[in-house]
Design goal:
With 399 residues, the chain is of the alpha/beta class. It is 55% helix and 13% strand. It contains 16 helices and nine strands. Keywords: Membrane, Transmembrane, Transmembrane helix.
């Protein structure tokens, strides 16, 4: 199983405890034995790729799986190293680009909850400006008048302006520090940075990420070549990783078009897709071509979404919106698409806790399902059925 994560600065070791915990839940619910190995980090490419393995002893057989999490944290880090003024300037540019391309309107039309999420970064930046600038502007006449009257000397005007400018600078610093303190809860700066990343990738203007896409494609081709003929190869992506995975799979297909028909099986799974985020900038500079190549390939593609997850834009049919078929009336197939049924896959208590913790809820795709017949990441990757057969069964409400 090869996994491409979303836009996330955290190394794999921070997320691995969740995977281990939910894997143990699978063993308990299914009443089977199994184990996960320790995590190995720092593999190529970029020194951020990680690997681990696992096995489960099902009644009829033992299933062994090697997991590889592709890395791109090193590429992301540059976005977070920019100065705050540069970040603001880049954010305004990216928000204007997606607005001009009609991305906000399209997201709101297809899924209002996800559309509101897409508006969160620009609205958040507007609120930041208002909180920083509005109080000093509104209080400026009062400060200038009262300070000037209190000083009553030749330099009263200069002193009044010094107090105004100094107080304004202190206020703006306080607002900035408050925003920084709220970041672990608001994810505001994280989203501003991710929008900047998407604006560059959508324009084919991100050479570091384009190089990483090619490196990841090489890794998948090599993994397929090294695997036994009866090994099932599953390429899984999550969140913002879904649109990058489209680019990666298109690069894989350029190298080996028949990989999707390998004897052991090849399946492509996108979870909590964020196609609308990058697609909102327009599909004309490469994303549409990549989507077309993937759709034409005949790959068994399953797109998993959660209507309760506003960070997921899963109600959008990705091929219909972003692929670019030729003018001869070509019809391209959509992926198999269905809801993971978030409330039914976990206990009522857990769902109540996560219902409005949207960023935590966005990781529900990695939870073990408490009810058979529903999507379960661990049964998919370590279960007794081949991935395609399991995904087809869940699509029909079976286990």
């Amino acid at each position: 199983m090869i996994y491409f994560p979303g836009y996330d600065l955290r190394p794999a070791r921070y997320c691995f405890p969740l995977l281990r915990k939910e894997f143990d839940t699978l063993l308990k619910i299914r009443k089977v034995n199994g184990a996960l190995s320790q995590l190995t980090e720092g593999l190529d490419p970029g020194g951020t790729t990680a690997s681990w393995s696992g096995h489960v002893d099902w009644p009829d057989s033992r299933v062994e799986t090697t997991f590889v999490q592709l890395g791109w944290r090193d590429v992301i880090k540059a976005d977070f190293r920019r100065s705050w003024p540069r970040t603001i300037a880049d954010a305004i540019r990216s928000f204007m680009m997606i607005a001009q391309a009609g991305g906000y309107r399209a997201a709101l039309k297809s899924n209002w909850a996800h559309g509101v999420f897409c508006l969160y970064p620009p609205v958040g930046l507007l609120l930041y400006f208002l909180a920083s600038l509005l109080p000093p502007i509104l209080l400026a006449p009062v400060i200038l008048r009262n300070v000037g009257a209190a000083v009553r000397q030749g330099h009263a005007e200069e002193i009044a302006w010094s107090v105004l400018l100094g107080g304004s600078a202190a206020w703006m610093l306080a607002v900035y520090l408050l925003m920084t303190w709220l970041e672990p809860r608001s994810y505001f700066r994280y989203l501003v940075n991710s929008w900047h990343f998407m604006a560059r990738l959508a324009r084919n203007d991100h050479p570091e990420m384009l190089a990483r896409i090619e490196e990841s494609a090489d890794l998948i081709v090599a993994a397929a070549a090294e695997a036994d003929e009866d090994t099932d190869l599953v390429f899984v992506s999550h969140s913002c990783g879904t649109f990058v995975a489209i680019y990666i799979l298109a690069a894989v297909l350029r190298r080996q078009p028949d990989i999707v028909r390998r004897p052991g099986g090849f399946s492509f799974v996108t979870m909590g897709p964020a196609f609308d985020c990058l697609g909102g900038f327009g599909a004309q500079d490469g994303f549409g071509d990549a989507m077309t190549a993937v759709a034409r390939s005949g790959v068994d593609w399953t797109d998993l979404y959660g209507p309760h997850d506003p960070l997921c834009g899963g109600r959008t049919t990705p091929v219909a919106r972003y692929a670019q078929p030729n003018k001869s009336g070509e019809t391209l197939p959509e992926p198999r698409r269905y809801s993971v049924c978030i409330p039914d896959r976990m206990t009522a208590k857990r769902f109540r806790y996560l219902r409005f913790r949207f960023f935590a809820l966005h990781f529900n795709y990695f939870f073990a399902s408490v009810r058979p017949g529903l999507f379960d990441f661990y049964r998919l990757t370590l279960g007794p059925k081949r991935a395609v057969d399991q995904l087809k069964a869940w699509d029909n409400g079976r286990d």
